[in-house]
């Protein structure tokens, strides 16, 4: 048995047979000189390849439009734009005429240079664009070299797909009902494969480096898309453990259906709201399936990360409207653009030395008021369809709240001028994810209709820990006394001002933190939809008073180890009840 650990990007547990998907190797790309009178024929060959690749991509685009939301279809549309990009063709033609070498080599050389430049970029977004260039160039080279592309459209049995890399076009065209999980050498949480696998509900573990070499075709695999663990040829003991985990996962899914209409209420009557975090419109239906009482965090930045110009107002309005219609009258909290940092858009690239502390989120929005107001108008228009709340990210002080609200008022005035209906009383809240915001929560509460605590960044900034750095991420402990004190400070400030305190960070869905958060007074928990049943089950089996006692003891602890030991002891004591 061999254990591999990668990046968990789409949750789910699967036991099955591996299918190693390796594209037919390209032969060595021919390279030879040509005469000037052969330039025209070589160029004609390339134009024919472009035509064939464009037709294939248009078919995929039409399928994506039928089956997916606009932002996902935009991934394929970006390929079309690249194929039709006159600058790309001009570069190829100039090289062909100046080098006087065969077009196959010219295309391969230019593509390789572009891919290498993008791959070594410090920007995660630009690194992912290398996959787009690779996808397009391989399509063109297959046509030029008459190479038959292996397809995933004719799978006859259920498989766990093991690949070095998977192009968006391949994921869109494969027979998805036969692909039970994806195991991939390449990729990250922001890659197209991660985003699309989540949308399709396919468990996925990416960033495994050498899985496609270490796993053999037909090997039995156990894949946990929640932890990032992949077991190759698991032992009988491991299989039993995974089957038990799978049964638990499936039971939780079944429980979510039977208990989705039950309130998240403690034994002594404390009622809290359990909501879902989503990134794409398709996830709204899943949220309802698991019993979400609304969307506590709709991350809107995917609309702004596709190649090309940021999403127009109409595209945003349609995306927001799609979610609102699915959710009915349930509230949907839309976080305004949080690009920058690790979610960069090359249209507004800024070379920050430390991007996570740089030009991002609300700072980015306030610096680009027209782009910001375009989004605000789209959200306001959507508020006529259903219950919408606006949330500003990465607030560090009251000045940013005031500036953002001023721009919102301008957007409202523009909607009134256009006679566009919207909710005049739309609620406006802020994310508490920076220590300065937690420290001044009493001040910020005066200009906010609600708080939502973003623990992912709050922990990172409080502990001065880059959670993406494997050498130090062990320090990012949500149970650290400093973090717990920030949480209490924020929740107490909200309640003193008469507003609710929510949480939309990963901690909200952590079953080990639920009791402490209840005890601290948290009003709303927003999480990955699949976590809702388990959190709800615990809430319904405890009393608020016992949780308050636990929270008070946790706040008096001197280290995160003491807190974890306390929680472990408390859980053991309440194990039968839970």
Question: Could you explain how this protein is built, in words?
Answer:
This protein has 578 residues and is of the alpha/beta class. The protein folds into three domains: 2-19 and 154-238, Glucose Oxidase, domain 1 (3-Layer(bba) Sandwich); 36-145, Enzyme I, Chain A, domain 2 (Orthogonal Bundle), CATH 1.10.274.10; 263-573, Alpha-Beta Barrel (TIM Barrel). It has 23 helices and 17 strands. The chain has helices spanning 39-67, 70-83, 86-99, 103-119, 124-145, 168-173, 192-200, 211-214, 236-258, 283-289, 302-305, 313-327, 361-367, 369-382, 398-417, 435-439, 441-444, 455-463, 481-497, 514-520, 532-539, 544-555, 560-573; strands at residues 2-5, 7-10, 13-21, 159-163, 179-184, 204-206, 220-224, 229-232, 264-265, 271-278, 295-299, 332-335, 388-392, 427-432, 450-453, 500-503, 524-527. It has an eight-stranded mixed beta sheet with strand order 1-8-7-3-4-5-6-2. An eight-stranded parallel beta barrel has the order 10-11-12-13-14-15-16-17, surrounded by six helices. The chain is globular and about 85 Å long. The two termini are 34 Å apart.
CATH architecture of the largest domain: Alpha-Beta Barrel
Provide the domain count. 3
Question: In this structure, how is the largest beta sheet organized?
Answer: 8 strands, mixed
**According to CATH, what is the topology of the largest domain?**
TIM Barrel
Low-confidence residue ranges: 341-350
Rg calc: 26 Å
Q: What is the oligomer described by this structure?
A: single chain
Helical residue percent band: 40-55%
CATH class of the largest domain: Alpha Beta
Question: What do we call the CATH homologous superfamily of the largest domain?
Answer: Phosphoenolpyruvate-binding domains
Strand content: 5-15%
Q: Helical segment tally?
A: 23
pLDDT averaged over residues: 86
* Structural class based on helices, strands and sheet pairing: alpha/beta
Shape: globular
Count all strands and give the number.
17
Q: What strand order characterises the main sheet?
A: 1-8-7-3-4-5-6-2
The first-to-last residue Cα distance is: 34 Å
